[in-house]
What we know:
Elements: H1 2-14, H2 17-37, H3 42-60
Helix pairs in contact: 1-2, 1-3, 2-3
Amino acid sequence: MRSAIKKTVAAIDAGDKEQAQAALAAVSSILDRYSHKGLIHKNKAARHKSRLNAKVKALSA
């Protein structure tokens, strides 16, 4: 999970919008799966997804 988040942040920092969107989709799936299984709290998953999504959207602006 943490590696996927780091990969998404690295793509955002590099300014690669397409790679960042692909990484965001992958990390969203992982976070949903982990929260559903109870490994992390659902609000923590939602917080990570929201913050990463906001950063990816800021790339296009």
